[in-house]
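Page 42, continued from yesterday. The earlier attempt failed because a stray header line got pasted into the input along with the sequence. Redoing it now with the clean sequence only.
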Amino acid sequence: MLDNANLTRAVPGGCVLGFLGLLAWIYAGLCGRALYLAGNLPAAEAVKNEALVRDLQVRGGVAFIVGALMVWVGWRLSLTADMSDPGNPRKPMLRF
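This time it went through. Structure tokens are written below.
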């Protein structure tokens, strides 16, 4: 059960960065799903969508790499964050 004391505790900032990296991985997965669906098109329509396929490949690859970097950096930051007193209101809510 959530009470007010648990809602005001600090969070390591690296966790937020890692969560954003996971969102980038979800976007890369959606690009991969779109590529899979584009691969099942008939040959006549596939020729028209070569630019779309290349765009999805680039966007998905970049999103995967950026997501991996964000998760790695977020992991490193969350392990080194000063979480000695998470309930102290004088310290910031996101700690790096």
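Notes: DSSP finds four helices and two strands in the chain.
Reminder to self: strip header lines before submitting.
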